Amino acid sequence: MRYWRIVGLLCVVFLLSSCTSLVDRDQPQVISEHDLLLEPGHSSGQTFVAQHGGLQGVEFLITPHSLATGTLRFHLRAEPGAEHDIATAVISLDPVEAAGFHRFTFEPLRDSHGRYYYAFFTFEGTGAVHISRGPGDAYLYGALYHNHVPQDAQAVFRLAYAPFWTVMDVGNAVVRGVGLLGFAFLLYVVPGWALLAWGWPKATLTWPEQLALSVGLSVALYPLLLLWTNVIGVQLGALYAGVPVLAGVIALLWRYRDWRPRQGLASLRCWQRSRVFWPDMTFVVALGLIFGVRLLVVRTLDAPMWGDSYQHSMIVQLLVDNGGLFNSWAPYEPYHTLTVHVGFHTVVAVFAWLTGMTSIPATLWAAQLLNGCAALTLYPLAVRVARGRRWAGVGAVIAAGLISSMPAYYVNWGRYAQLTGQIILPVVIWLFWEAVENAKANKIAVILGGVTLAGMTLSYYRMPFYFLACVGPWFLLWIGRNWKVARSMWAGIFLRCILFGALALLLFIPWFGALSGSNLAVGLEKGLSATTSWDMLRGEYFLWYDLFTYVPPVLVLGVVVALVWALKLRYWEPLSIGLWLVVLSGLPAARLINLPGANYMQNFAVFIAFYIPVGVLFGWLIGQLEGMFSERKLVLAAVVLPVIMLWASVNGAWKQVSIVDSQFVMVTRPDTRAMDWIRDHTPAEARFLVEGFRIYNGRSIVGADAGWWLPLYTQRSNTMPPQYALFNEQPEPLDYSRRMVELVAALEETVPASPQGIALLCEEHITHVYIGQGQGLVGAGVSQLFAPQDFLDQPEFDLVYHEDRVYIFTLNDDLCINP
Question: Which of 36, 6, 61 is nearest to 152 (CA)?
């Protein structure tokens, strides 16, 4: 009865708390010096997207004039053009009322999460009121409206939610998240688990190790499956998802056909009483926090973020459209080769096939699920380095998944190809060590290692360098400690190492045909003869000044302590990981000796991968601490250590809730609404001029707002090809990429409405201009290519769409003699 009373008391407290609104500061409180004056008979308002369920109030920062009296009549509608009210409210003004947030309250909207609204109010009375406002870029998902006309500004507003319905909305999100995790388990765990269940020696792997290794194996399988079916001329489409999952489920059911629930209960009781209970429970909680935060932070995004996400989403869509690998980028872009790494895209494509999502949401959600997997796959490597201590695996997962900003921060960049390679990398390293040392499993380790190494290379071309940077120092140290091994054993070890690489090479061979003659191959050839000086590299190594940006100080301290401890005790495994850090850091400098491929090594790419060796070393330190205190039978190992690690997990999760950086949000709700309009109101042959800027010393271009995404959303062409295609693939016609770069360069020098600008637009058959919510300023250090003012009131252009901060103009047909 005592417990039921506590539960009842909590329910009462929760219900009482629902009387108080949750006020969410959706918009940063950036206030302009100039207020908007609202007089009787006029209206002001704001469009916005609700971030939670249970919207029940909108607050505006209002300053009544000293003589103002009357009422403010509020309307909430679905969009600026809607005629019907969703909710209404009225508040009275007191002539002595000071400036402050005035709330318009209405009945809670239970399903408001993610919905777009238009809130406005009219002033009825005498005098005037001042509406506080901020700059146009202060809020991403709407704009200030005056008399129902959008302004390049934002009202200063806040949204109030009913806590009960907000909690219910979060509950629905949890249910959906569990569903997404279920799909991820089927795709990214089951196939690899089946391989381990049938191929690996029995009872030699713990369940967390099996889980993590299964992820690396499964993720590596999909690009190889698509590659080799393409070789024999078969495109399986949705069967690429269905066959591995179904085969894996059947294999596991048959493998464990003798299992009975009674056995499971007995094993569970033994586990609860064992020493591994607390590390395993901490591991489970940490995984829940990792995946929960990964899914939570993207819940209100309309599309994955920044530029890389656009090309990833397009390649995924092309895989889905073609039922497998493709050559032509039609109907989206005029390119006809595919040479970029495709691992991430195949892994997302199978997710899209299994869930029925289109490429854009599939890329958004699958990428975050994979982001969580990147921390998970460190577990077996950390345990192996710590010679079997489970707390080492738990520490590594928590360090990489919750304490470190990387790889969680990848969500802002769309750096998902590298992420996919890094999911597989710790598993490949673990399998290589097993192939060398484990006499019982070395044959299956060679086979699985070759498969994962090939899949990892297809996922990210830099990954073999990262792999060799680790196993090279490890193997040298291993030889130093085992040089007395019999000659016959050395022969077997070297043979397994050769077979490990040879199998990977054999599986990768079909892709060499795609790479032959590609821009990538040409770049590798240039790197063999190019002259690089230290002065040219110095700029890259300035990144070391920002080390704490990529690796938190607490982890840096942990690494230093771990290496000093390992050196003192002569534990060579963690020392090999320390050498891995050193060799990784030196990869860009290998250009000085023209090491093949070194010209593609970047310190930035290395720094954002530091979480792998750093996580492993931090995990080793945690494992050593647990072992030391366990031997002395101190309470720290049994009680305090789990509490500390759980606290670190919760604290890290809380910090990562705000990891999304709005400066990298490229597609917003106002943009998707405009794209719906484009599909309905423009001809299929329409071609859009969009915002962008030049990169790589002017050799390439990238988009700077949602206009870049137009081909994928609307099937209308634009002037900004995906970076992967422009920089790596063959265009048709051959001068297309060059012309697009030259167009951006020319518009940096002249406005589009000038005679020179009009000639350029006509030459490229441009019919429309798109300026997105981001106004061509999405990214760091971007210069706007053109502004709405360059087209407004210009006779050559007609404004045909303007909502929020999105503008669409048409170019007058009679200006181009030969359109």
Answer: 36
610 half-sphere exposure, CB direction, 13 A CA radius: 25
Residue 267: exposed, middle, or buried by beta-carbon count in 10 A (0-12, 13-18, 19+)? exposed
Question: How many angstroms from the chain centroid is the CA of residue 457?
Answer: 20
Amino acid at 476: L
3-state secondary structure 150-206: ECCEEECEEEEECHHHHHHHHHHHHHHHHHHHHHHHHHHCHHHHHHHHHHCCCCCCC
Count of C-beta atoms within a 10 Å radius of residue 813: 8
Q: How far apart are CA 618 and CA 553, in angstroms?
A: 12
Domains of the chain: 24-161 (2.60.120), 169-193+208-256+272-518+552-656 (no CATH), 666-815 (no CATH)
* Backbone torsions φ then ψ of 92, nearest 5 degrees: -95, 150
3-class SS at 799? strand
Put residue 203 in one of left, alpha, beta given phi > 0 → left and psi -120 to 50 → alpha: left
Buried/exposed 283-312: b ≥16 CB within 10 Å, e otherwise: bebbbebbbbbbbbbbbbbbbbbbbbbbbb
- How, if at all, do strands 36-38 and 129-131 pair? antiparallel
Q: What is the pLDDT of residue 635?
A: 56
- The model's pLDDT over 40-55, given as tens digits with 9 standing for 90+, comes to 989 999 999 999 999 9
Under the phi-then-psi rule, with left for phi > 0, alpha for psi from -120 to 50, and beta for the rest, what region is 594?
left
Taking CA atoms, 659 is separated from 310, 361, 367, 404, in Å, by: 20, 19, 15, 11
Q: What is residue 531's predicted lDDT score, i.e. its pLDDT? A: 61
Phi, psi of 48 (to 5 degrees): -160, 170
Neighbours of 3 (CB within 10 A): 7
Cα angle 344-348-352, degrees, rounded to a multiple of 5:
165
* pTM across the whole model: 0.94
Q: How many whole angstroms separate alpha carbon 420 and alpha carbon 345?
A: 9
Structure tokens at 556: 């840096």
Q: Where are the alpha helices (DSSP H) in 274-406?
A: 277-296, 306-322, 343-355, 359-376, 379-385, 390-398
Q: Which amino acid is at 803?
A: E
Nearest residue to 219 (alpha-carbon basis) of 464, 399, 448, 509: 448
CA pair distance 221, 188, nearest whole angstrom: 9
Token pair 């009387």: residue:
19
pLDDT at 523: 65
Q: How far apart are CA 573 and CA 617, in angstroms?
A: 10
Q: What are 187's two structure tokens?
A: 């795709």
pLDDT at 595: 75
- Per-block mean pLDDT, blocks of 10 residues, the chain (819 long): 40 48 71 81 95 95 83 96 95 73 94 96 90 92 96 94 95 95 98 96 91 98 97 96 97 89 78 86 97 96 95 98 96 94 97 97 98 98 95 97 97 96 98 92 94 97 95 90 76 91 96 81 61 67 84 96 94 95 89 73 91 98 87 64 93 95 95 98 97 92 96 97 92 95 96 94 96 92 92 95 98 76
As a whole number of angstroms, the distance between CA 349 and CA 187 comes to: 11
Q: What type of residue sits at position 341? A: H
Cα 739–Cα 744–Cα 750 angle in degrees, nearest 5: 120
The whole-number pLDDT of residue 633 equals 60
Looking at residue 122, the DSSP 8-state letter turns out to be: E
Interhelix angle for 611-631 vs 416-437, to 10°? 50
Beta bridge partners of 55: 109, 161
Range 163-178 burial, b when 16+ CB lie within 10 A, else e:
bbbbbbbeeebeeebe
Structure tokens at 469: 């940077």
Nearest CA among 343, 351, 344, 353 for reference residue 322: 353
